[in-house]
Amino acid sequence: MISLSFYLNIFTIAVIVAVIVMAILRIFKISLFNRLSTRIAALILASGPIALILIRVSNELILPGTRSPLATLATYVLIVLGSPVVLGLLAARFVRWPLHQFKEAIASLEQSNYKVQLRSMGVREFDEVFTKFNHLIHRLRHEEKLRKDLVSDTSHELNTPLTTMIGQLTAMQEGKYPLTEERVAILKEQAERLAELVQQLDAYTKARMPDTGEPEDIHLRQFCEELMNHFSLELKQKGITAKLHIAEDSIIHANRGALQQILTNLMQNTLRYSQATEVTTEATAHKLLFSDNGKGVPSESLPYLFERFYRVDTSRSRATGGLGLGLAIVREVAESQGWAITAVAGHPGLMFVLKINA
């Protein structure tokens, strides 16, 4: 008869081999080790041999004939059913702790805490979800900051012209200031500033609505020349030369109104902020490249240029401030047409790449 020590030695060797294999997997960072399915499958496969070893061990510990057949059967049933339960509890630990962390993170989000971050658990399936969750939290945190900034930004931009207008009108009403052409011009300028801000908000709202206009064939060079002519005075005042690298026979099938609004907003953005001397429009297959040779923007600002109310220059001045809706409108209009627009560093300057699905 094989002794009890033999089975114990076999069990010990199996455990040592398993530990060594797991250590090797961890040292060399083999992806199988990090998979939850691999760990659970290993536990399931181990439950059978472990149950058999325990049965043989119980037979060695309790001499034949000293227990009834019913007690023997009960022992076997307990071992066969108990081993998977114990291993199942161990497997549940692989799931319970990540889910507990995830539950706490959700509870923090319910309290508007956007600083929570999920830690890596070393389990591939959970870590993939946690990474996406952390990216989402980062996005929500950024959106929350923009939302909070909206009130202060909008109130500042609206308050400045309103305060000026009320002050001027009150002084004239009380007879402190005479009604002169200069003061009327100031009031008109502030009223125009208010109107522009309201127009930006209205344009953004409309840009989020589906455009029912039908696509048409557009002679792109002629289209862009007309746009440049519309801005000829502003371009001349800023000392900016407009260049077109578009073939005479270049035709795209697109929504004219959407394309016009996108290029108009890009041109206005260049005129206001770029400090460029050249602006270039180039056409390739299903793409429009709109670039300048100006000061560009910091690399960390590129992913946020099309966000609502985002401004590279945090100054609140009339010259460089504004509500930061121009490029947000561009993205909304592009996406409403099934297009995509991105911004890349131009070296120097800034380039916008509009992909049109013709």
Key terms:
alpha+beta, Helix Hairpins, Heat Shock Protein 90, 3 domains, 7 strands, elongated
Descriptive account of the structure:
This protein is an alpha+beta fold and 358 residues long. It has 3 domains: 4-113, no CATH class; 126-207, Signal transduction histidine kinase, dimerisation/phosphotransfer (DHp) domain (Helix Hairpins); 217-355, Histidine kinase-like ATPase, C-terminal domain (Heat Shock Protein 90, 2-Layer Sandwich), CATH 3.30.565. Helix content is 60%, strand content 11%. It contains 9 helices and 7 strands. The chain has helices spanning 4-27, 36-61, 69-110, 124-173, 181-207, 220-230, 232-238, 256-273, 326-336, and strands spanning 216-219, 241-245, 251-254, 278-284, 287-292, 340-345, 350-355. It has a 5-stranded mixed beta sheet with strand order 2-4-5-7-6. The protein has a two-stranded antiparallel ribbon with strand order 1-3. Helix 8 runs antiparallel to helix 9.
Which H/E pattern describes the elements? HHHHHEHHEEHEEHEE
Structural class: alpha+beta
**How many β-strand stretches?**
7
**CATH second-level architecture of the largest domain:** 2-Layer Sandwich
Secondary structure tally, helices: 9
CATH class of the largest domain: Alpha Beta
| CATH-assigned homologous superfamily of the largest domain | Histidine kinase-like ATPase, C-terminal domain
Mean pLDDT: 76
Radius of gyration over alpha carbons? Answer: 35 Å
The general outline is: elongated
Q: How far is the N terminus from the C terminus?
A: 82 Å
Provide the β-strand percentage band. 5-15%
GO cellular component, one term: plasma membrane
Main location: membrane
Subcellular location: Membrane
Catalytic activity: ATP + protein L-histidine = ADP + protein N-phospho-L-histidine
